[in-house]
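Input (Lipase A):
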Amino acid sequence: MRHITTIFNLLIVFASIATCLPTTSSNATIPPQLFQDLEQLSRVVDIAYCVGSTGIFHPFTCASRCSDADFAGWELVDTFNTGPLMSDSCGYIVLDHGSGNDGQGRIIVAFRGTYSIANTIVDLSTVPQEYVPYSGGNASESRGEKKGKSGNGWRFWDRTEEENRENDGDKARTECRNCTVHTGFLTSWHNTRPFILPHLTRLKTQYPSYDLSLVGHSLGGAVAALAGLECEALGWEPTVTTFGEPRVGNAGLRDYIDDAFGEGRYRRVTHVDDPVPLLPLSEWGYRAHAGEVFIGKEELQPGVGDVWFCEGDEDRDCSAGAELDELQVEAEEQEVLAKRWGIPIPARLGLCVPGGDPLDWGRERYDFGDGDQVQVEL
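Output:
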C-alpha cells in the first residue's frame, strides 16, 4: 500500500509540473518551415522504435510511419542495436536523396529512446566522469570562430549575461575544460560509435554534398548530443535535433556544447509536460545547454504559435521555468524522487505500430501530428 501511495504521489508531482511551466512567452515563435522540419524529424525518431521489434527493411519499410509520403525514395543504410542493457543503444541510418522542397540530400542517424527514461537516468548511474573530447583537428580548432545569430532582440545560441558570468569567457577552446558527463550516457555512446562512425565515414565520402542530421528522443537525445560533438570534431558539421533530451553533463560540458554548435545547428525540443529535460537534477551538478525549442501547449497537436525559441541555456519562459527542486512535495516524496524519478513500467513490450508505441512514457508529447496533414498556424 505504501508503494501504491508513493506512485500516486509521483503522478501528482509530475502533473504539477505543467501548472508551473509557462504556456505563453514573449520569445519568438518558430517559422513554419522549422515547424514542418521538426514534425518530420519527430516521425523519423519514432520509426527508430521499430528497431529491436518488428524491424526496418530496405529500401525503407516498417510497421510504423515509413510509408509516409515525404519518406518516398528514402534509402535505409543500416540499423544498429548494441544490446539489451540500459547502457546500450539502437536506431538506424537512412539516406534522404533530396526529397524535401529544397532538394538537399541528407544522411540521417536516428537514436531510439528508452522506456521509463527517468528510471533509466538513475539506473545508469548519475555519477559523472571526466569528458575528454575526440581530437578531430581543424573542426575542433575552428570552434571559437562560430557565433550565434541575433534578431528581434532574441539570441538563439548566445548565453545570457548572467550565464556568461558563470564561465571563464574563453570561447576559443580546443579542449573541454572542467567537463564532466553522465557516465551512463557516455557509455551508451561508446557502445554505439563502432556501429555508426564507419558508415558515416563512407557516406560522407560517397555523398560529400549531403548534410548530416542526428536526431534522438530521451536517452537517444543524450546519445545524439555526444555523437554530435564527435561528428563536429571530425569536421562534418552535423545538425542535431533532440526531443526530451535529459541534461548530459556539468556547466563545463554545457559551455563546450554551446561553443561547438552555432547558427541554429542544435534544436533541443522540450515540452511543457515533460520533466525529463530537468533531469538529472541541477543539485547534482547537471546543466542544460542552449538551443532549446519549447512546446508550450499541453494538448496535441501543437501549432506554430505554440512552439517558440528559448534564450540562452535555461530560459525561465521554457522548461527551466519549473525546476523540480522547486516543487512543493513532502519529505517522503522528496527522498523517493531523489532516488528514482518516474514511474516504472513492469514490461517492455517493444511495439512498433502506426503512431508509435502507446506504452512509451512521454513519447506522445512530441507528436506534431500527421505528416500528411500538418496544420501550420500563423
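The chain has one domain: 2-343.
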